[in-house]
Amino acid sequence: MSVEFERQKLELALKAGRNWDNFPFSLHIFDSVASTNQTLWNLLAQGAKPWSVVIARQQTAGRGQWGRQWISPTGGLYLSIAIAPKLEASASYQLTLASAWGIADQLRCCGVVVGIKWPNDLVLNGRKLGGILTETKINNGYISQAVIGVGINWINPVPETGINLEMWQASYATKPISCLEILTSTVLRGIESGMECLAQEGITILLSRYLELLSNLGDKVYINDLAGTVVGVTSQGKLRVSLEYYDTTDIKTPELYIEPGTISLGYRKSSV
Ligand code: BTN
């Protein structure tokens, strides 16, 4: 499937409704790269600045979370953006939480009712629409550079548990997202607003907004054969699970904090 990417259309969409004195984004658009995250790291090593963006029509070695592969044929959105947050290394996961919330929120403003599946999945109708991969460089305990990579299914084929925006918009006479450039601009605005929320309002407010869009709250999960309920996410991105177990005297509900990547939550329809 062939999709052209028009730089001018993207620039117009990014500038719409805003008075930039200096347009912050430096856009690098490619036909094919191994991974937009890797290409951006290479550009950063050559002196590229924060808010540099790499976009590719396809990736030949797209990277997913936890060392997985991200299959990236043409028709999908593959982008990476560089940022320089003032954050301690231990708070790295906040960049993923902020991006997930910001992107979902911006898409919802366009009428696409995206939710979040912990920790980094964007979901639509209970299926995976996209994912986020944040990579960081740490210096003296602080993040010196970060690359946020986003993959979103636009018109590319998807597996059983996935959905693309084309499928979802099929029944709409006027499509909320009319082209790949508008989707790209919406995602970039989402990352920008997520970072702004984190920097200006802080992790507590950001987390409360993230939780409003989280589809997993109340899910029943099993940890080492013990039943528990998802009750939230910590400021470091861990899943909060309230475990219910009985001892001889009374019922106790201790809380467990689960590291991202150590359990997988299923896809399902949800109300957010
Ligand atoms: C996930 O596993 O859900 C995260 C997937 C992130 C994929 C994107 S596509 C653009 C960027 N470049 C990469 O190599 N990966 C991210």
Tell me about this structure.
The protein has helices at 7-15, 36-45, 93-109, 165-169, 180-201, 203-212, and strands at residues 26-33, 52-59, 77-83, 115-117, 121-124, 127-139, 142-152, 220-223, 226-233, 239-243, 245-246, 251-252, 255-258. The chain is α+β, with helices and mostly antiparallel strands. It has 2 domains: 7-212, 2-Layer Sandwich (BirA Bifunctional Protein, domain 2), CATH 3.30.930.10; 220-258, no CATH class. The strands form 3 sheets. It has a 7-stranded mixed β-sheet, with helices on both faces. Helix 3 crosses helix 5 (180-201) and helix 5 packs across helix 6 (203-212). The two termini are 32 Å apart. Residues 35-37, 59, 62-65, 68, 70, 78-80, 120-121, 131-133, 149-151 line the site of biotin.
Helix content: 25-40%
Could you give the order of the helices and strands? HEHEEHEEEEHHHEEEEEE
Please state the CA-atom Rg, rounded to the nearest Å. 19 Å
Strand order, biggest sheet?
A: 1-2-3-7-6-5-4
CATH superfamily of the largest domain: Bira Bifunctional Protein, Domain 2
What binds here, in terms of ligands, is: biotin
Number of helices: 6
Structural class: alpha+beta
Give the count of structural domains: 2
CATH level-two architecture of the largest domain: 2-Layer Sandwich
- Provide the residue-averaged pLDDT: 92
Low-confidence blocks of residues: none
Main beta sheet strand tally, sense and closure: 7 strands, mixed
CATH class of the largest domain: Alpha Beta
**Structural shape:** globular
Beta strands, count: 13
CATH topology of the largest domain: BirA Bifunctional Protein, domain 2
Beta-strand percentage? 25-35%
Cα(first) to Cα(last) distance is 32 Å
